Amino acid sequence: MTTIPTRPVGQTNARVTQFGLGGAPFGNLFTPVSEAQAQATLQAAWDAGVRYYDTAPFYGYGKSEHRVGHFLRQQPRGDFVISTKVGRVLRPPRNLAAFDKGAWADPLPFEFDVDFSYDGIMRSYEDSLQRLGLPSVDMLVIHDLDFYFHQNEARVSAWLNQLYTSGWRALDELRRHGQIQAVGAGVNELGMIPRFLDLVELDFFLVAYGYNLLTQEMLQSGCHTEQNKTSEFALCAERNVSIIIGAVFASGILATGAVPDAKYFYAPASEEILDKTERIQNICQQYETPLPAAALQFLLANPIVAAIIPGALAPEHVQSNVGLLAQEIPAALWAELKQEGLLVADAPVP
Q1: Could you tell me the sign of the dihedral formed by the alpha carbons of 122, 124, 125, 131, in that order?
Q2: Which CATH code is given to the segment(s) 6-250+291-339?
Q3: Does 85 participate in catalysis according to the annotation?
Q4: Distance from CA of residue 293 to its chain's centroid?
Q5: What is the dihedral of CA 227, 233, 236, 237, to 10 degrees?
Q6: Contact, 163 vs 200, CB < 8 A?
Q7: 128 in helix, strand or coil?
Q8: What b-and-e string marks burial along 294-328, b requiring 16 or more CB atoms within 10 Å of the CB?
Q9: Which residues does 51 contact at the CB level (< 8 Å), separation at least 6?
Q10: Could you say which of 54, 115, 138, 203 is catalytic?
């Protein structure tokens, strides 16, 4: 049993605890995490009532899936929801001496090929089941099909075409046959949500950028014509497509505050972002509210958000985040943030 409320994912039968756990840290993203610490963190999340876990083949080139699966296969299968991702197929490196670890500290020794074809997605899905040691996953996410990773329109269009003409058939088959409950797409930037919605029938988006306490661009940007202005989130709401928020703390700064080495989406925060964070933090302090508590609770106030999935490096991070979710925040805090122009006027707040 869990005391964390659940929310539906789109129009599917999948329900996720509104507070979940992201699996990138278990792939040693930037920072090494020991096996014992990873398992202790997963146990702390379970003890806190977390029943939704997200991972990916890309995270540590298989390491995150191995670690998450090791923990979850010891739990009753019907008691949790797990999502993993497709779009990259792992293989042994052709030259181990020249193996590129990328952003992962001590990943497994595998490289990947981008592949959104039918065979590539089926291979990725089946390989994930074996790494997890589970007979099924609940949700699959189309991973990183965007400009952040593929850099230009020619490549993005080519991969979208491969997905539409080939790979989507695999995802549709798995969903129709009940082998998965929901299909989503990971989004790192503005502009991709409308393109996906025009192309395929998704149940949710896993959003890493565009909606947090520092920016609400996805409430403002989307399909714009002289006759119609529809935000990206409004487009999702019209089609009953849910949102899951991945980069809850904008990759760091909304947890640390405006410290000198603060990170904003995996890069040093600009002076503009540092200044805005400091202004938000000052208002939070006036109302005796920790900045991370406001960051977490703001996201869940939006009814389109099914879950938030912050990562954690240690058990105390999970325990702290769960505690921050329960902290009472005065309504006047949100009103002042809007009055000062630090939140979009129509942004849902607790």
Answers
A1: positive
A2: 3.20.20.100
A3: yes
A4: 18
A5: -90
A6: yes
A7: helix
A8: bbbbbbbebebbbbbbbbbbebebbbbbbebbeee
A9: 2, 4, 6, 16, 17, 20, 79, 80, 81
A10: 54
AA identity, residue 32: P
Alpha carbon 108 to its chain centroid, in Å, reads 22
Listed residue (52, 65, 43) closest to 21, CA to CA: 52
172 is catalytic: no
Quick check: is 115 catalytic? Answer: no
Q: What is the C-alpha to C-alpha distance for residues 133 and 319, in angstroms, rounded to an integer?
A: 27
CB neighbour class for 135 (10 Å; exposed up to 12, middle 13-18, buried from 19): exposed
Q: Which of 59, 125, 211, 264 is catalytic?
A: 59
Marked catalytic residue, from 52, 53, 85, 146: 85
pLDDT, tens digit, 9 for 90 and up, residues 279-331: 999 999 999 999 999 999 999 999 999 999 999 999 999 999 999 999 999 99
| Structure token pair of residue 283 | 């208002």
Where residue 227 falls among pLDDT bands split at 50, 70, 90? Answer: very low
Q: pLDDT tens across 68-109, in order?
A: 999 999 999 999 999 999 999 999 999 999 999 999 999 999
Among 99, 108, 94, which Cα is nearest to 59's?
A: 108
pTM for this entry: 0.95
CB 294 within 8 A of CB 257: no
Tell me the DSSP string of 203-226: SEEEESSS-SSS--GGGT-EEE-S
